[in-house]
Amino acid sequence: PRLRQVMAATTCHAFGIWIPLVYLSKVADDSGFSKAESDSIVSCIGVGSISIRIPMMLLADRFGCHRIATSVLLVFAVANIAAALGTAADSLLLLQSLAALSGACMGTLMSVTSPLVAECVPMAAMAQAVTATYSCMTFGIFLGAPLAGLLFEWTGDMAAAFVFAAAVLFAAAGILNAPRARATQGEVAVAP
What we know:
The chain is mainly alpha-helical and 192 residues long. 79% of the residues lie in helices and 0% in strands. It contains seven helices and no strands. The protein has helices spanning 3-17, 19-30, 35-63, 65-85, 92-118, 126-155, 159-176. The longest helix has 30 residues, at 126-155. The protein is globular and about 55 Å long.
């Protein structure tokens, strides 16, 4: 991928990356689980995020950050569709599993962003490229959850927030895999 593709995909996925963190515990609350059980959802997201980073980076080293990022974006999108459909709402174990999977996807995406940038630019431009890419991520994170909140307010249904997350995650995967133009000055052509 090219740096602009990575930046656009990062912005896009950042719009949806925190939606499970914000809404999965609310799904548990609305399903009648206790406050402690609902709060356990956030812990499962954290455990998923922390526990998967090293194994996924080992896989990224073997198969490439581009392939891992694309796979994770697609899995994360499907997980959000499952949340939108309410498939896990009646089971605390399924909600916790969905939360851990969401955390694992978030942790992996955070971990592969810098190496993805490194595949796109020469080392001399790395600092500026990483700063620009993480600025794009910050922009997406800053606006994503509030936009999902507006969708919830307009529709009265949390499924809209999860569908929004799935849509931006699918879009990020598409952007990351869009046909590549010729490398511009300062960018390095890398095969996926």
